[in-house]
Each structure stands twice: as C-alpha cells, then as structure tokens.
Amino acid sequence: MKKMMGMISLVLLMSGCSNTSAKKEELLVSAASSLTEVMKEMEQQFQEVEPDIKLTFNYGSSSKLRSQIEQGAPADLFLSASEKDMELLESQQLINTDSIKTFAENQLVLASLQEFPVTAEFKDLVSNTEKEIAIGEPDSVPLGAYSKKALENENLWQTLDGRFIYAKDARQVVTYVESGNVDLGIIYSSDAVISREIVGTLEVPGQKDSIIYPGAVVADSEKKIEAAAFLEFVTSSKGQAIFEEYGFMPVAEETP
C-alpha cells in the first residue's frame, strides 16, 4: 500500500511539473495579411528566445483589424501595413503611443504569371483593354489605397477604372493572380518574392514614398510586457534579416 501511494505521489508530482512547464502566456497579435508568411518564420525564431510566450495571430486588412480593436476585440499587439490606421487608433488612445515602432517597409509591383519583356513599360502592360487587374479595395484595404494613389499620380486611375477586380485584402489579390483568375495584379513586392507562381513583376510608377509598416502595443492589453518583447524582436537585427529574406525593405534609419 505504501509502495502504491508512493508511486501515485510520484505521478502527481511529475504531472504537476509537466503542467507548470507547459503553461505559456498567450499573446494575441493582429497583423496585416501581407505579413502572413513572414510571421510564420518570425514566430519560430521568437520561440527560441522566448519559449514561454505563445503567439496567436489574427490576420486581415489593416483597416479591418483597426475596426476590430475600436470595437473592443481582444488584441495585445497591432502590426499594421498602414500608418493611417495606426494614427486613427492613436487619436482614440487605443494604442500606447510610446510603443509605436516602424518595423518594415514595402513597395508596389505589377504581377503576372507570365514574364514581362525586359523593355516592358508599365503603362503599356496595363493599357491592354482585354486584361483585368486585381487590386485591393481602395476604401478598406491599404494595398488598394496605395494602388489608387500611385495610379492617380500617373493619371491612369480613370483610364483603368472598370477593369479592376477588387479584393478584400492583400493576400486575396495575390490569390487572384496565382490562380489565373486575372491577368495582372498590383501587389506588395514582398508577396511577389515569396510566390512560387508569379514570375512577372514590374515596379509600379507613381509611388512617392515606400510603404511604412508600424507596430504598437494595444492600450487595453494585459500582456504589455510580452507584446513589447515581440515588437522588440521584429525590429531587432535578427527580425529585420527575416523581413529582408521575405522581400520586405529594411527599415530606413532616422537621420540625427
């Protein structure tokens, strides 16, 4: 009997130790859909330095994620592809202003399953009236807003209007191109780099500045320390190297 009780005590002790070691702090990260693939690698690398923090991602367009935070949806960290959406949250004191950091930059490219001629001009490629062009919805998707602005700068928006196929987020634009549902799409250069199907890319003219990705800790988060730790990781040299590997541009250093 004593021997059996001793064995039970040992099992309970081992079980207790196992439960303690398995317990992790869950961090809810609302991230722009264009970050989907790079965050898989980022999560894996982060787990090596912070094994007690479990990352759970909620992907979508930055404006949709911003709206969710405004409505009180749970989130600890917001990784946006839009400065505008971050500024809107900041104006409502829904994120910690002191925590805002730029963690990546991007640019727009025209994408196709067919390789473009070396001498191809953007205007000539999009002027083919038989070709539909996928872009993000300009009013609700940052990618769409950036695309519209660039095309307006080149006086092409009204000319091409009527041939656009609108997508709910950046990933859907890529899917439209990769599936062959459209001939052309305006996507982030980072998505073109990681795509196995897209072979034709050309920089979209009319872009005045690179696209900024800001991140910040959500004001109502109960995991502010953990959220700050992950944001610190993605802005570190190791995190930046991962972004570059996935086609993002390195964050420009501020001049003193």
Structural commentary:
By secondary structure, this protein is an alpha/beta fold. It has two domains: 25-105 and 212-246, Periplasmic binding protein-like II (D-Maltodextrin-Binding Protein, domain 2, 3-Layer(aba) Sandwich), CATH 3.40.190; 108-203, 3-Layer(aba) Sandwich (D-Maltodextrin-Binding Protein, domain 2), CATH 3.40.190. The chain contains eleven helices and ten strands. A five-stranded mixed β-sheet has the order 2-1-3-10-4. A five-stranded mixed β-sheet has the order 7-6-8-5-9. Helix 3 (62-70) runs parallel beside helix 4. The model is unreliable at 1-21 (pLDDT under 50).
Secondary-structure map:
Elements: H1 2-22, E1 25-32, H2 36-49, E2 53-60, H3 62-70, E3 77-79, H4 83-91, E4 101-106, E5 108-112, H5 122-126, E6 133-136, H6 142-153, H7 157-160, E7 164-167, H8 170-178, E8 184-188, H9 189-194, E9 200-203, E10 211-217, H10 224-235, H11 237-245
Parallel strand pairs: 1-2, 1-3, 6-7, 6-8
Antiparallel strand pairs: 3-10, 4-10, 5-8, 5-9
Helix pairs in contact: 3-4
Q: Runs with pLDDT <50, length 5+? A: 1-21
User: Which CATH class of the largest domain?
Assistant: Alpha Beta
Question: For the record, what is the CATH homologous superfamily label of the largest domain?
Answer: Periplasmic binding protein-like II
Q: Which structural class do you get from the secondary structure elements?
A: alpha/beta
Number of helices: 11
Report the sheet with the most strands, covering strand number, pairing sense and barrel closure: 5 strands, mixed
N-to-C order of helices and strands: HEHEHEHEEHEHHEHEHEEHH
How much of the residues is beta strand, in percent? 15-25%
> Largest sheet, order of strands side by side?
2-1-3-10-4
Please estimate the helix content: 40-55%
Shape: globular
Please provide the count of β strands.
10
CATH topology of the largest domain: D-Maltodextrin-Binding Protein, domain 2
N- to C-terminal distance: 75 Å
| Rg from Cα | 22 Å
Integer tally of domains: 2
Q: Architecture of the largest domain in CATH?
A: 3-Layer(aba) Sandwich
Mean pLDDT: 90
